[in-house]
Amino acid sequence: MFSAKNLSPQQLSAITALIIAFPISVASFYFQPVWWISMIVFTVVFLACFGLVLFMVQSFVYRKIKLIYKLIYQTKASKREEFYYKNILPQKSIDEVREDVEHWAQQRKAEIEVLKQNEAYRKEFLQNLSHELKTPIFAIQGYVDTLLNGALENPEVNRKFLGSTARNIDRLVNLVDDLDEISKLERGEQHLFKENFIIQDLVKEVFESLSIKAELKQIKMGVKKGCDAPLTVYADKEKLRQVFINLIDNAIKYGKQNGVIEASAYKIDGKRILIEISDDGTGIAEEHLGRIFERFYRTDLARSRKVGGSGLGLAICKHIIEAHHQVIHVRSTLDVGTTFGFTLESKKD
Predict the structure, then answer these.
(1) What CA–CA distance (Å, rounded) separates 338 from 253?
(2) I want to staple 312 with a disulfide (CB 3.0 to 4.6 A). Which of 33, 42, 91, 178 is the partner?
(3) 209 and 183, same structural domain?
(4) Residues 122, 128, 129, 130, Cα dihedral to 10°
(5) Is residue 97 part of a domain?
(6) Would you write out the chain's pLDDT as a tens digit for each of its 349 residues?
(7) Other CB atoms within 10 Å distance of the CB of residue 301
């Protein structure tokens, strides 16, 4: 179907030439009613107008359009691009070119939005990092200054202050180690050593290693009933141990007194296994769920720093799971509890 919106330069030139040539040939026939003369006039005027209009469109209009495309792609034209400019671009209608430019503008707008988000994230990250570093450094500085100003001679005070200094140094070391770990994961420098192992066995080992912490709050930990059947996954066991330690340690920190932490594992298809760590703790507000895997993001700054941690644990978990080409997610309701879940590749023969 004919559409004026999709005219090529040749079609536009032909229509313009026809509009000009037809009345001139009719006028010629009116003044000299010889049909072959009118046909010659029509042909000459049509060809002349067609050539002139086509030349003007290609030389001026499409030269400007060609310049627009070069500015869009910001490259020196290759042979392939020159072929495109000479043969394909002139076949496009002005509306098609407009659509290309609008598509390019939308892409640039999206890229700018991403850059703005990344810039805001970078500023927030640096601010949080600065705060995380200053807290233990200032504490160490205060303890050392107090000891140097005379408290060193007091055996009751110096041991207490040295112990506090040591704990803050440990916090700094853990923070630097976590930063190094997450940097390597982001750069892809942490190689995975995958093997087949039973996921429930690893979870039980982590429960055992954190049992003393759990007992202090009288929290019960175990594998969910009905999920005891051994499920074998193909993954990096030590990296997964780190994930479970971070998730279960958080569940203990933010869990309720006399609470429960459960691990569950399910086959979701022939290739993947879903693992979940659930607690009945304080939960996480909905507005925080989309950001808890960001570095240093804390839902409650005062409470989070009081219970300790570098603020990088969940970010490390996310990177480890993504390094396995899998995904991690979270579900939570305030005063009901939280469930972290992720998938792993099932046993590999």
Answers:
(1) 12
(2) 178
(3) no
(4) 110
(5) no
(6) 455 555 666 777 788 888 888 888 888 777 778 778 888 888 888 888 888 887 777 666 666 666 666 656 555 445 555 555 555 555 555 566 667 777 777 877 887 887 777 676 666 666 666 766 777 788 888 878 888 887 777 777 778 888 888 888 877 887 777 777 777 777 776 788 899 999 999 999 999 999 998 999 999 999 998 888 899 999 999 989 989 999 999 999 888 899 999 999 999 887 899 999 999 988 888 888 888 888 777 666 444 555 555 577 888 889 899 889 999 999 998 888 999 999 999 987 6
(7) 11
Please report, for residues 21, 34, 51, the alpha-carbon distance to residue 28 in angstroms, rounded to integers and kept in the order given.
10, 9, 21
Q: Whole-structure pTM over 0.85, yes or no? A: no
- 334 and 200, same domain (yes or no): yes
Q: Are 216 and 338 found together in one domain?
A: yes
Residue 25: HSE in the Cβ half-sphere, 13 Å Cα cutoff: 19
β-sheet with 260-267: strand ranges across: 220-223, 260-267, 272-279, 337-345, 328-333
Residue 135 per-residue DSSP state: H
Within a 13 Å sphere around the CA of 286, how many CA atoms are in the beta-carbon half?
0
Q: What beta strand segments (E) does 133-271 contain?
A: 194-198, 220-223, 232-236, 260-267
Q: Which of 55, 86, 47, 52 has its CA nearest to residue 69? A: 86
Residues 6+ apart with CB under 8 A from 346: 231, 232, 233, 234, 267, 270, 271, 272, 273
Using CA atoms in the order 173, 177, 178, 184, what is the torsion angle rounded to 10 degrees?
160
**For the CA atoms of 339, 345, 346, 349, what is the dihedral angle to 10 degrees?**
-160
Report the number of distinct structural domains present in the chain: 3
Q: Are residues 259 and 172 in the same domain?
A: no
Rounded Cα–Cα distance for residues 45 and 18 (Å): 9
Tokens of 274: 């879903």
- Closest by Cα among 142, 136, 207 to 172: 136
Question: Does some domain include residue 313?
Answer: yes
Within this chain, do residues 162 and 265 fall inside the same structural domain, yes or no? no
